[in-house]
Amino acid sequence: MSWIWALLVGAVTGVLSGFGIGGGTLLVLWLTLAQGMDQLRAGGVNLLYFGCCALPALWGHIKNRLVEKQAAIWCICWGVPACAGAAALASVLEVALLRRCFGVLLLFVGFRELFPKKGGREAGNGGSAKKE
Amino acid sequence: MGKKWKFGLTGALSGLANGFFGAGGGLFLVPLLTRWAGLPQRKAFATSVAVIFPLSLVSAAVYLWKGALDPAACWPYLLGGFAGGLVSGRVFQKVPLGFLRRAFGVLILYGGVRAVLAL
Predict the structure, then answer these.
(1) Structure pTM?
(2) Please, which pLDDT band fits residue B35 given cuts at 50, 70 and 90?
(3) Could you tell me the residue ranges of all domains in chain B?
(4) Average pLDDT estimate for A17-46
(5) Cys-Cys crosslink for B34: which of A80, A129, B106, B118, Cβ 3.0 to 4.6 Å?
(6) Sign of the Cα pseudo-torsion (B77, B80, B86, B88, in order)
(7) Contact present, B85 and A18 (Cβ < 8 Å)
């Protein structure tokens, strides 16, 4: 039965990941809180999983001309060395510390999502961001 | 600061989160791409998927190399994720992103409290 749950959780978080709304973060929470997996291994599952759900979603986004090419290229060029270095560092750190750091990041982002700065939600409903 | 620098720094920050936590790169990407770099919100969401995809593959390769990846534990999530990704690409233009982000905020605050307190 557990694989059915995993399939369902993967599908729901996959929809959110395809939207770009932290589905992977929720999957890591599920793996650590409900499945008792440590932070490093949960992160590993999520990294592979994201490859699977991003590809079909990306196909739709590209077809709908929603991917900003210049932004994507520059983000990837700088992001790849950063993530490779950070992943190597994570693998030698204590997992409990890793989980606490992740928790701090979640608290910060969750607070910003629920209580956006004056001027509106930065990405949810516009804010100072350019509207479509 | 020029746009290329803003995109680059945004990508670096999200790469750090992606590699370090195995998740969370998009938590930086979308707000920074909209608020700092001025992308329209729906384009920022879609672009963040395009960025996180290669970053996740690179991080996964490093995790695998360091023995922190268990492919056997992954497959049901991969299948579900692929199906979810197919759906999201088709319905993305029609969903209320604001509501979803608020619900997401509640869930990650809960997860954050439990992670920090090691519950």
Answers:
(1) 0.81
(2) confident
(3) 1-74, 86-119
(4) 86
(5) A129
(6) negative
(7) yes
**Is the minimum CB–CB distance between A97 and chain B shorter than 8 Å?**
no
Chain B residues with CB inside 8 Å of A18's CB? 49, 84-85, 87-89, 92
Poorest-confidence range of A111-125, B1-15, B53-67? Answer: A111-125
Distance separating alpha carbons of residues B32 and B35, to the nearest angstrom = 5
* Contacts B107 to A, Cβ<8 Å: 26, 29, 110
A64–B109 CB contact, under 8 Å: no
ipTM of the complex: 0.82
Of B1 and B58, the structure prediction assigns the larger pLDDT to B58
Query: A15 to chain B: nearest residue by CA?
Result: B84
CA-based nearest residue to B80, from A50, A28, A44, A26: A50
Residue B117 carries which DSSP code?
Answer: T
For residue A118, name the pLDDT band (cuts at 50, 70, 90): low
DSSP secondary structure string for all residues of chain A: -HHHHHHHHHHHHHHHHHHTSSHHHHHHHIIIIIS---HHHHHHHHHHHHHHHHHHHHHHHHHTT---HHHHHHHHHHHHHHHHHHHHHHTTS-HHHHHHHHHHHHHHHHHHHHSPPTTS-SSSS-TTSPP-
Task: State the Cα angle at A43 between A48 and A20, rounded to 5°.
Answer: 70
CB B21 within 8 A of CB A105: yes
